[in-house]
Amino acid sequence: MPDWSEIRSRFPALAGRVFLNSATVGHLPRAATEAILAHLERRDRLAGADMVTWFDDLDRLRGKIGRLIHAEGDDIAFVPSTAHALAVLLQGIDWKPGDKVLTIEDEFPNNSYAPALLEKRGVEFVEVPREALEEALDGRVRLVVASVMSYLDGFLFPWERVRDKLDRNGTLLYMDGTQGCGVLHCDMQRMRPDVFGVHAYKWMLSPTGAGFAYVKPEVRRWLAPNVVGWRSHHTWRDFANLHHGAPEWAASAQRYEGCMQPVPLLCAMEASVDLMLEIKPARIEARALELAAQVRAVVESFGGTVAHAESPIAACKFPGREAGAIAQALEQRNILTSARKENLRVSLHLYNNESDVAALAQALAA
Questions:
Q1: Has this prediction a pTM greater than 0.90?
Q2: Would you identify the CATH topology of the domain 4-28+280-365?
Q3: Which of 41, 206, 275, 287 sits CB 3.0–4.6 Å from 269 for a disulfide?
Q4: Domain covering 38-278 assigned CATH 3.40.640.10 in the classification
Q5: Which positions ≥6 away from 115 have C-beta within 8 Å?
């Protein structure tokens, strides 16, 4: 089993504080910061003469992300945010009047703002209660947009229940893994999304601006890029003889990148992915759920409730107490959580431990 204390020691931001807020922002392991500095030092030392090899580094990272989520390196495109990943899909579908895009109520705004704008093209955007999801999946639904895990209360999208029905109806599935990927074991072969977007600054423990999208091979056959730049033509690595004219796309998901990449940020992400592969995704998930269960026991001992039992986000409610006020009182005691609507949101990750839970219990008692 991993040495969780040793793993925690790799995160400088945790020194002297209780951090229970990875659903807002995750922290970088020391190795991630060192990877950024190493890349910049190499750039200075070699004056960029090795720039073509930076893309070899990124290909290595694609392969590692593939291992993490059970995909191939060719399935991975780097994106600066999930808004970009969703935009590629929304702009690439041949929408017809009467089509529907479906999501559940209280989704993260990313997943409702852009689909709502499709109404100008005759596409109906529908938000349904969680319990009405399966009933709402009729033949007019071209696309379902959903987060792996709700940012509000840790609700896990029931992909296992709906996946077969989506296949029967020919409905596409876009999953936003920003909340979840890195702490939950996200397996593309089991979840079978058509596109899976992740901004890695939360549970993937990476800088803002570092993200990726998994695009299913079958989808790449028809989904055209909407970001077109010098890397769009499939022979872009031949710097001395860049193609002129309309680009011919690569077969891999790199076709959706188009432009130069934020290499230092992705170097940091590689260090964090290395850590997750070292520990193993299933162990990370089990550890986070174990700690979340301990938090639930603490909350219930004070007469509170937690929304969902099998989630690394413990969404806590205390009768007669306002979540924002509790979060502020905890922050005064150097315990970082967050308030989302009526929930005190406590989020557990691989660097948390039993001492964090004990400190939370002591502060709640106070």
A1: yes
A2: Aspartate Aminotransferase, domain 1 (3.90.1150)
A3: 206
A4: yes
A5: 90, 101, 103, 123, 125, 143, 145
